[in-house]
Specification:
Strand content of chain B: 15-25%
Shape of chain A: globular
Helix content of chain B: 40-55%
CATH superfamily of chain A: Thiolase/Chalcone synthase
Radius of gyration of chain B: 17 Å
CATH class of chain A: Alpha Beta
Strand content of chain A: 15-25%
CATH architecture of chain B: 3-Layer(aba) Sandwich
Distance between the termini of chain B: 24 Å
Number of domains of chain B: 1
Order of helices and strands of chain B: EHHEHHHEHEHEH
Oligomer: heterodimer
Largest interface: A-B, 69 and 60 residues
Order of helices and strands of chain A: EHEHEHHEHHHEHEHEEHEHEHEHHEEEE
CATH topology of chain A: Peroxisomal Thiolase, Chain A, domain 1
Number of helices of chain B: 8
Number of strands of chain B: 5
Number of domains of chain A: 1
Distance between the termini of chain A: 30 Å
Strand order of the largest sheet of chain A: 5-4-6-8-1-9-15-14-10-11
Chain lengths: ~400, ~200
């Protein structure tokens, strides 16, 4: 049975790179409306794809030719998160630090040119791309980079992977397997999901508008985020005063459909209840919700049904909620980690923007997102970030701003 | 790690180190699996169906190095054959790494967390390490650890590069936290992944 957790893992460092910005200041300026959001570009202009759906591409981020782009992005995010946590490579080498990477693209061999070669000649002597793939598993790569000796795993739970990486990090800490874990979410824009979401008919021809009556689907994007989580004792031994904690987390499976979410919100509610129980909180304690909010009808129905249902159960109002996908696109395996970071930034800044892209909330939804910016009361401490995914996965992370 | 094995079940390969397609076809019919049941999904669901005392609420920790190869290969073939990127939607949605355990959760109504892990270094240890963490701190009394690998031209190449004899298998282990005096279930790190599974196969 799920119970309140005995301690709340603290966040000692984090960093993200996405179309919302690559620094805290850039992201906060975007949230405050002091910077314009990035405009998505046709996929065929920025990646190898025939499809022209708009996507959010990190134009300024250059990838070395020899390295998978996802790996370059996540290495950058990890390096910056570790610097902020005050952890040097020498401090990490040989330590019982864990590493969990959530990703979709980086765990699958997607070299179409090599598949052509194999199809034409199954006995081709060329194996270089396969060897490179086997050597580039994201979590194993980071563990090698820093000589980490704690639990190491790459989790690929589709679009919830980034949130699940954070939840798994917490499980490792709470179970006593280690005292520090780097949780990462990362995914590059890639032809396979661009084609896949297009044929599923869920991509929008214009910038996405989650929860809006005129929404037409999602935009894909690319991003990486990294969060350093430690036990409070581990952070205290280093003399670190963390600003945030992972107050609670919950996961569930809809067990209903392989791609479509449960539009009654049943799975999301179960995940949220688990997160609240671990956190020792009520739904009424949540200052705001950073929703998965991809911009599809089914996503919006699922999440708003869950939020309204939880409010009814707890005899409280639905907390203000928004989706940040209009700023970044749907960054798949990165989304959960990056949006958890956005949630912490909004808690720190005390400011939550109106849900970007939503001008006329869909009246058929069970509740409506934030219509105007919200200044948080000074005592606002808790906020949640939600994720949904293929396979029926639902994940909720609750961030706490520490005194 | 302190895990106790309660039950196990397998869809084992035939002498050619592949699942028997006639067997999988019969299992699809017996279990009422639809068009989304590719070979690996059918093999995993078949093994789960035969598991003694299968729980109704155990989290799943799924580990596979290379994932659902029939779907991934179909997807790549579509990309090669249709330059306008008109890939098959089912091939796409069922090629994701968590599609197999997701389908298993649907089949058996498991509304518990599902973790889908991928990797090439000590995958058995990593799957069981997470199962141990879920039992210790995840509020679960039992965990289903599932391992599955499927062959393809690409997978055979990858397995050989990893010095593994290309083999298909689906293995399900029902685990709980070991109590004092109970046998402890752990991977034998002296064996490679496939040899470890091979020793456990009936």
């Amino acid at each position: 049975m799920i119970q309140a957790i005995p301690f709340h893992p603290v966040v000692t460092g984090f960093a993200q790179l996405s179309c919302a910005g690559t620094t805290d200041a850039e992201a906060v300026a975007l949230f405050r409306g002091e910077r314009a959001p990035a405009e998505p570009r046709p996929a065929c202009d920025v990646i190898d794809s025939a499809i022209s759906d708009p996507v959010f591409h990190l134009d300024s981020f250059v990838t070395p030719r020899w390295e998978p782009r996802t790996l370059t992005m996540l290495r950058q995010a990890v390096k910056r998160a570790l610097e902020r946590a005050g952890l040097t490579p020498a401090m990490l080498a040989g330590s019982a630090t864990g590493c969990v990477v959530g990703t979709t693209i980086a765990q699958q061999f997607t070299d179409t040119a090599y598949y052509r070669l194999l199809r034409e000649d199954p006995d081709t002597p060329e194996s270089g791309p396969v060897s490179a793939f086997l050597a580039s598993n994201p979590a194993e790569t980071i563990a090698r980079d820093y000589d980490l000796r704690g639990p190491v795993n790459t989790v690929s739970n589709a679009c919830a992977s980034g949130s699940d990486a954070v939840a798994m990090a917490a499980l490792y800490l709470l179970s006593g397997q280690c005292e520090r874990v780097i949780a990462i979410g990362a995914d590059e824009l890639h032809r396979t999901p661009v084609a896949g979401f297009h044929v599923l008919g869920v991509t929008s021809p214009f910038p996405c508008r989650p929860f809006d009556s005129a929404r037409a689907g999602l935009n894909l994007g690319e991003a990486a985020g990294a969060v350093v989580l430690e036990t409070p004792e581990c952070a205290a031994r280093r003399g670190v005063k963390p600003e945030f904690a992972l107050r609670g987390f919950g996961m569930s499976c809809d067990a209903a459909h392989i791609t479509a979410p449960d539009t009654t919100g049943g799975g999301m509610k179960r995940a949220f209840r688990a997160a609240l129980t671990r956190a020792g909180l009520s739904f009424a304690d949540i200052a705001f919700l950073n929703a998965h909010g991809t911009g599809t009808v089914l996503n919006d129905q699922c999440e708003t049904a869950a939020f309204a249902g939880l409010a009814e159960e707890n005899a409280c109002d639905v907390p203000p909620f928004l989706s940040t996908k209009r700023f970044t696109g749907h960054t798949l395996g990165a989304a959960g980690t990056v949006e958890f970071i956005f949630t912490m930034l909004m808690l720190r800044d005390g400011f939550v923007p109106a849900s970007p892209g939503c001008k006329n909330p869909d009246p058929a939804l069970a509740c409506a997102p934030l219509a105007s910016p919200l200044t948080l009361p000074s005592n606002a401490r808790f906020a949640a970030s939600t994720s949904l995914a293929f396979g029926g996965a639902d994940t909720v992370l609750i961030a706490e701003r520490l005194g | 790690m302190a895990l106790h094995l309660l039950a196990s079940s397998f869809t084992a390969p035939g002498p050619d180190r592949r699942w028997d397609n006639d067997f999988l076809r019969a299992e699809r019919a017996r279990l009422g699996l639809g068009r989304r049941s590719d070979r690996m999904t059918a093999a995993v669901i078949s093994a789960l169906d035969l598991l003694e005392n299968r729980p109704a609420d155990a989290p799943i920790v799924f580990g596979s190095m290379l994932g659902v190869q029939s779907r991934i290969t179909a997807l790549q073939n579509d990309l090669l054959d249709f330059p306008e990127d008109q890939i098959g939607p089912v091939a796409f949605s069922c090629s994701v790494h968590n599609a197999v355990p997701g389908a298993a959760a649907i089949q058996f109504g498991l509304k518990t967390p599902v973790f889908s892990l991928a990797g090439f270094e000590r995958l058995p240890r990593r799957v069981l390490q997470l199962a141990d963490a879920v039992l210790a701190a995840g509020g679960a009394e039992q965990v289903l650890a599932i391992f599955a690998e499927e062959r393809s031209t690409f997978a055979d190449r990858a397995m050989r590069l990893l010095e593994l004899e290309p083999t298909e298998f689906a293995a399900v282990f029902l685990l709980e936290s070991a109590k004092t005096g109970q046998d402890v279930f752990a991977p034998d790190d002296a064996l490679n992944y496939f040899d470890w599974i091979g020793k456990l196969l009936p």
